[in-house]
Give the backbone structure.
Amino acid sequence: MVKRTKKRPVFVVGHKDPDTDSICAAIAYADIKNRTDEGLFKACRAGQLSDETKFVLDYFNMPRPDYLINVGLQVRDMQIRETPGVEAKISVKEAWKKMDETSSRTLPITDAEDHLKGLITVGDIAEHYMNAHTKTMLAESRTSFKSIADTLDGRIVVGNEHAYMTKGKVLIGAALPEQLKEAMDPDDLILLSNREDAQLMAIASGASCLVLCMDAQPSEAVMKQAEEQECVIITTPLDTYVAARLIDQSIPIGHLMCKDNLLCFHTDDYIVDIKETMGRVRHRDFPVLTKNDHYFGTVSRRNLINAQKKKVILVDHSEVSQAVDNIEEAEILEIVDHHRIGSVETMQPIYFRGEPVGCTATILLQIYHEKHLTIQPTIAGLLCAAILSDTLMFKSPTCTAKDKAAAEELAEIAGIDIEEFGASMFEAGSNLKGKTPAEIFYQDYKTFVFGEVEFGVGQSVVMSDRSLEKVKDTLLPYMEEKDIHNNMIFFMLTNMSTETTYLLYKGEGAAKLIEEALHAEAHDGYAVLRNFVSRKKQLIPAFMETLQSGDYTR
């Protein structure tokens, strides 16, 4: 039986299309939380890694975080009832007993590998019991003689307990032997008392099984003849009436189970996708399978109410548009960020730490110090790389004295030279060979919402004017063909060595916004911006101020 893990992780995750700071901050903050708080904190990523980030992780031998694509409520977040699966060969009586012991209305039938083979419900059993008008049910269901004996609280005194009843019907031998003989067919099962003559006659007439009620014991002669005729003899303490009522409960549940068109859910299914089905199909319980199709448990409609939200800590962002999908269905515990306060809303007060520095990693270094934690060289290297990336080697206007001091401290712990490592990192990140325009465009892309205006801004850093022109000529046709549904999109193509940015644009009003906010000439799909490298410090504030002024119209 598959058991679910009781310890639920808290996901520490950065924004979509993550940059190096987003990934490294998640890893470092998960390290802090695992060393200071109770629980399991797991660093994740909300998108594909850039070449720059891959270089950093590989350089410091850090495994890549798991991809967290969605934090919406899933079946695994519901209170799954771990009703054990049973084999199809167990009797109806045994199945009923298990239902009673576990207070279950539905019983899953599984094989040795925990694959679901069928379901049986209390209603199925009741319907069978009320409609049991055939005398051949035991033969039709290939009921074993052992199951018959167990159901009747009896024991087999003659014959093979592993044999099955495959032919014949069930008779009560209350008539005289001569009359019973006329009513019998070969392979019938006969319920008898202690009359030896009737027992011998039934065996001679080809009975497959004798059930002797009220603890009647067969004589030596009866046992000998039964062995010769391969007739099974069962003794039971029950009287004939009770035995006749109970004997149909010996059939295997595999004969009654529903096995076609089973409606199952998987642990990874999202509740929003199954809720309608659960409301439309009035089953009491629904089986749940793992992603490998192993039986896991059952859920019912009432379990929807108690679904446990995923617990999430956000780093390097506080915008809903930048967060992992369905963030509104998760429970946000903390936010650590260095951007403007965004649009994420929480149901209760949370720990929020936001500082006007150039990188989330700078804040995390302070937290390490505040909590008196030793920083491992690997983590120090990741945080240093994040600062160098976000501040463009201290050239960005977002860079503060705290960022530079933090980077120098972290570089010493990690044992790296800032200039050499930074150059290698940016070179790895600016290698766009073999990438599609879409991969370049979305490798560091963020969406911003201001009132009714929504726009997206991507950025890529290159190391030479030649690379800048090449990427520009690649992206402009891509953006021109891109359907953006009347939203504006921009792309900052930044040459770090000259601190020059080509701002590519598309969308109704995009050129006008550039001209009004940045006082730059926009034509042929782009504008040239000198001494301009920061999306956060230079571009977004200028755009927001212009949009807020009320003078801007598309």
Summary: The domain at 77-130+255-304 is CATH 3.10.580.10 (CBS-domain). The mean pLDDT is 91.
